[in-house]
Amino acid sequence: MSPKLPQNNSQTITEYFNLHKNQLQGESAEDSYKFAFNDRAFLARKETLGIRFELELLKPDILLRENDIEHTITVFGSTRFVSSNRAYEMEREAKTTEEKEEAQRALLHSKYYDSARELGKLVAGYNATQADKHNKLHITTGGGPGIMEAANRGAFEAGDKTIGFNISLPREQSPNPYITPGLNFRFHYFALRKMHFMFKARAIVAFPGGFGSFDELFETLTLMQTKKVERFPIILVGKDFWCDVIDFQKMIKHGVIEQADVDLMHFVETAKEAWTVIKDWYDLA
After folding, report:
1. Is there a domain that residue 2 lies in?
2. So which domain of life are we looking at (predicted)?
3. Span 101-124, pLDDT tens digits
4. Which domain holds residue 34?
């Protein structure tokens, strides 16, 4: 094989654990005598990839069931947005041209943070009216900062359970502090994390975001377009943003999608509008 052709194009679990190749051979008597489930080097081998997939699939599912979580609203959006209070602080503290420009962007986008926070509060308020825990909807996010923090925060501050599906990254993403203890999960594989975003989702609410938000949104649209999942509300907050960065009508013109595909999405401007779409869809009191 050419030395320029990589054997693996991803961050392997071996690299993540900082294991060396010779630690995966299991040649020493000490390593061979370890319980298989207690042998990190063995579990990091390429042959056990399927086992790792199964574990990442199984662990959150079991714990969510034990916490009576059956229905979720999954919220996507930028990690970079901050609250309006924080944005005003940045504006007051800005000294350089770059800092002032960053503060202006923060102020522009802070409405989305505040809206995601309000959505979490609205969902929590509905849950408080439900005697049957199996009727409740719970806010689920990727567990990080920005829009994820805001949605978790709104639900958490209203006294509700809130879920975070975090991911290991080369520059580690810390969980935000508004996730219920015991419902704060950590994934290595994006694919398994995205499966859990969908499993219990009864709606997707996508705020403006970057590559990650687009990836998660289009994965959901593809699953729904191909009828791999039952149809449920896909809500995009901020029509100007979404229609500016993605020209859906031009996609229709080019024949790569149909109007029915665009009709899968609901465009709204506020948290209340997003919650109304969900309430009307499921005829919630």
Report:
1. no
2. Bacteria
3. 999 999 999 999 999 999 999 999
4. 9-15+23-55
